[in-house]
Amino acid sequence: MLRAGGAVSRGCGAVEAIRARRRQQEWALRKARRETQLVSKRLLRELQDDGEEMETREPSVTQEEVSQLYQRIQHGSEDRLAALQSLCQLLHLAEAQKMFVRLENSIHVLIGLFTSNLASVQLKAAQCLLRLSHADDPNVSLVCLPATPYLLTYLSGQSAKFTEQCLYILGNLAAENKAVRNQLLLQGVVQALAGCLQSPHGAVVEAAAYSLSQLLQAKEAREKIVPAVLEASLTPRLIELLDLDSELGMPTAVECAWCLHYIVSSGVASECVISQGILHQAVTLLIALGRAIDSGATTDGVELLIYPVVRCLGNLTASRDATPLVDCGLLPALSSIISKFLPTQPSVSRECLWLLNNLTVGEERFCSAFLKYNLVPVLLQLIPFCGGINTLVLTLLGNIAEMGPELCEKMLQHREIFSALCTSMRTADTEAVRLALEVLHLILMHCAQACVEFANQNGVEALEAIQYNSNKEISVRANFLMDRYFADKAV
Question: What's the sign of the alpha-carbon dihedral 173, 178, 183, 185?
Answer without folding.
Answer: positive
